[in-house]
Write a structure and sequence with these properties.
39% of the residues lie in helices and 29% in strands. The chain is an alpha/beta fold. The strands form five sheets. Strands 11-6-1-2-3-19 form a six-stranded mixed beta sheet, with helices on both faces. A five-stranded mixed beta sheet has the order 14-13-12-17-18, with helices on both faces. The chain has a four-stranded antiparallel beta sheet with strand order 7-10-8-9.
Length: 411
């Protein structure tokens, strides 16, 4: 039985850096959940739209978030699974084929066919971050979820490959390394947010996860239990803040404060007379502005975001065709009226995506803004378990080989 172990995730966003530390207890896999014991939060001043713009500042911000989490957890954090987003992240589908020669398919064969799917021509400035198998085929039988243990002559996989711009990825890795922690794996936010918020049933029925962060909006569509499509749009909560600053002629800091405190995308429910006194939130801006006008500005930007999501769903033939609807996650989805606007634009049932199957100090992370950090943690927990399983498989095979060698020496 696996012993209790500590894992940590680091979500490096364009507005905030979130660290989550959790304990995973040994036990049956279906009952194993990460128990959160530490949470760290710091502003992200060295990032913009998923790109590093100030190395020293970002290192300082990462250290601050890590130290907060370590203090709360009471354990040191030496290595992390990293959730990353950015407009530089792109995805495409690929196929891999290998010969099995009629033998039983092993986990090694599954790993080989995934390697074959990665042997595609990608630009020299891009790096594969993640490969997600969509479906396997053994000879003529298609739609297989796990081919291990089956027999056949030919094994195929259709895989979804997510890549990042190599310089942006290296810059982020350098900053995390200089903050004093090792990286276990990089997890794209499109995958991570879904890991934290979706149930198996939702993935089977068909669902889209829309993760609206500060700099970018990540979209992941799932159907029949696997990922169908993912994309990252270079538009997010910061775009809305900038619109407010320009429209109301305020500083960006003031715009962010009033967006959080008074923001809404329901201008029809507001009176023309409702005003916001900016002197109550800022020393720089002292005028009064219309609450309704701010809501109209926000509504226009969110309408654009959901229209772009709908265009992506139309492109893959799933507009209005996902029975489990849409889940909204990220720090920028909490404004009043966002769910209603998404429902109207997408023509789908819409709900807020809160983390599921998480234990520990849940009140600290029961927030759509923590979806990527928690999803990265869950993904890391499963990778750890697969690594332990693969390690035991290789050890077993090694012992078998040693045993057969000894037998060959016997008279």
């Amino acid at each position: 039985m696996p012993k209790e172990r500590v894992i940590a995730s680091l979500d490096v966003g364009s507005a905030k850096i979130r660290t989550v530390v959790a304990v995973v207890n040994g036990g049956q896999e279906e009952y194993r959940v990460p128990n959160v014991i530490g949470v760290g939060l710091s502003p992200s001043l060295g990032m913009r739209k998923g790109h590093v713009i100030d190395v020293e500042e970002l290192i300082h911000n990462i250290i601050s978030s890590l130290e907060d989490a370590e203090r709360m957890a009471g354990v040191p954090v030496n290595h992390v699974f990293v959730g990353m987003s950015g407009s530089h992240i792109e995805a495409f589908d690929s196929r891999g084929v290998i010969a099995i020669s009629g033998a039983e398919i092993t986990v090694d064969d599954v790993a080989r066919v995934l390697e074959a799917a990665q042997a595609v021509s990608i630009p020299a400035n891009r790096r594969i971050l993640h490969i997600e198998p969509k479906a396997y085929a053994v000879d003529e039988q298609r739609g297989i979820k796990n081919p291990a243990g089956m027999t056949g002559i030919r094994l195929e996989v259709e895989a979804h490959i997510i890549t990042g711009h190599i310089q942006h990825v290296k810059n982020l890795e350098k900053c995390i390394d200089q903050a004093g922690v090792d990286i276990d794996a990089l997890v794209p936010s499109t995958i991570a947010a879904a890991e934290a918020t979706l149930t198996k049933r939702q993935k089977e029925l068909g669902v889209v996860v829309i993760d609206i962060g500060a700099g970018c909006t990540s979209i992941a569509v799932f159907e029949e239990g696997t990922i169908l499509h993912s994309v990252t749009l270079p538009i997010g909560g910061e775009s809305c803040t900038n619109d407010i600053a320009i429209g109301l002629r305020t500083s960006v800091d003031t715009a962010e404060k009033i967006k959080i405190e008074y923001g809404s995308v329901l201008p029809a429910e507001m009176s023309e007379r409702e005003m916001i006194d900016l002197s109550s939130v800022s020393k720089v801006d002292t005028q009064t502005v219309s609450k309704k006008y701010m809501a109209e500005i926000m509504q226009a930007r969110y309408y654009e975001i959901f229209s772009l999501v709908k265009a992506e769903l139309t492109r893959i033939g799933r507009s209005g065709m996902l029975p489990a609807g849409a889940l909204l996650t990220g720090g920028a989805v909490k404004a009043p009226g966002v769910l209603d606007l998404a429902r109207d634009v997408l023509g789908l049932p819409v709900q807020m995506g809160f983390p599921v199957d998480i234990g520990g100090v849940i009140e600290k992370v029961d927030d759509p803004a923590y979806a990527t950090a928690l999803g990265t943690l869950v993904w890391g927990m499963r990778e750890d378990e697969q690594g332990l399983h693969m390690g035991s498989v290789h050890m077993k095979r090694a012992f078998q080989q040693v045993g057969s060698w000894f037998k060959s020496l016997l008279p």
